Amino acid sequence: MHARMAKRLAQTPPSQRGLFNRVYAGWATQRQCIRAMCLECLGFDKDGIRNCTAPECPLYRFRPYQK
């Protein structure tokens, strides 16, 4: 793992580290990668993902936690 990834992983909330370990190792599914990107973008706030106001984001249509 690169030093940059290790630093980012250290800043990740413990409840999300498993997900980010899979992403960084290349073992994550496409859905897990999108979830990780959205979580990181919005400060690890699941409600923030649900209420995302960035429809110009290429992942907006695929974001998790939609109603």
Secondary-structure blueprint:
Layout: H1 3-10, H2 17-25, H3 30-41, H4 46-50
Summarize the structure.
By secondary structure, the protein is mostly helical. Helices cover 51% and strands 0% of the residues.
The value of Rg in angstroms is: 12 Å
- First and last CA, distance: 35 Å
The percent range for helix content is 40-55%
**What is the SS-derived class?**
mainly alpha
Assign an overall shape: globular
N-to-C series of helices and strands: HHHH
Quaternary state reads: single chain
Unreliable stretches covering 5 or more consecutive residues: none
Query: What is the total domain count?
Result: 1
Q: Can you summarize the main beta sheet? A: none
| Proportion of strand residues | under 5%
Give the mean pLDDT. 91
Number of DSSP strands? 0
User: So how many helices?
Assistant: 4
Q: Which features does this protein show?
A:
single chain, mainly alpha
Describe the structure in your own words:
By secondary structure, this protein is mainly alpha-helical. It has one domain. Helix content is 51%, strand content 0%. The chain has helices at residues 3-10, 17-25, 30-41, 46-50.
